[in-house]
């Protein structure tokens, strides 16, 4: 990736931080996920973006990706998608039997972590046996 793309990413992260500061300064208090306001969430996401962009810029290695790795990644993505569908079906059944009382923000964070873990585990298993 060239330097121009990194510059645009940095600009977007700084815009998010500035928008968060403006919303916090105007004292717009709307609780968003686990944050006290949307402004603090935007500031947090902006700083996370800055950290990720800087790490990508520092550790920019040339990786050789062959057809086998692409094939395994596609299979792992397919397994993850099937897992999401099955997990959604199980949640619908369980919610019909007994109401699930969990905060939406916790549910989404657990779901995203589960999806990432499912992809990682399926990728590693497929990489070992293919």
Could you describe the 3D structure shown?
The chain has helices at 3-25, 38-58, 67-97, 104-129. The protein has 130 residues and is an all-alpha fold. It folds into two domains: 3-58; 67-129. The protein starts with a helix and ends with a helix. The model has no long low-confidence stretch (mean pLDDT 83).
Short account of what is shown:
The chain has 130 residues and is an all-alpha fold.
Entry keywords:
130 residues; mainly alpha; 2 domains
* N- to C-terminal distance: 30 Å
Count of discrete domains: 2
In round numbers, the mean pLDDT is 83
* Rg measurement, Å: 20 Å
Helix share bin: over 70%
> Quaternary status of these chains?
single chain
> Number of DSSP strands?
0
| Regions with little confidence, pLDDT below 50 for 5+ residues | none
Report the principal-axis shape.
flat
Spell out the helices and strands N to C.
HHHH
